[in-house]
Amino acid sequence: MIPGPSIQVCKGDYVVIDTVNLMSGQAMSIHWHGILQDGSQYYDGVPFVTQCPIVDGNSLRYHWYAENEGTQFWHSHHGSQRIDGHYGSIVIRTPNPFHRNLYNYDRMEDVIVLSDWLHVSGSEVWSGRLRCHPGRYKD
After folding, report:
1. Is the pTM of this model over 0.85?
2. Residue 76: which of 22, 12, 15, 13 has the closest Cα?
3. Which terminal residue of the chain has fewer beta carbons within 10 Å of its beta carbon, N or C?
């Protein structure tokens, strides 16, 4: 499924997302773009900075409060997984929007996510970026 599922919550909700890594031989993490991580910075999803990557066969429960309304996005923050389709939208809605009279309805299925799409995996396009080349760069 490209993009991944849309996460739709209201401002103030406590969001709990269980992530299971079923990608054999690959680690992963999920980064939540635009989400304030006040008090939950260890769930920001940047591998080796705010968390350890989730190794294959393991899971992690992300949880944080939805504090800033708007449309944001989530994506895998490990290797080339984002360009392989590991991304989706996060919509944090205002419980009672003050300009409700300016539109008729706001449906959950009407979120548009724009992205490039390749016909091959990211590891095929950027194969040299995924492995270490000892001795390649010399002083």
Report:
1. no
2. 22
3. C
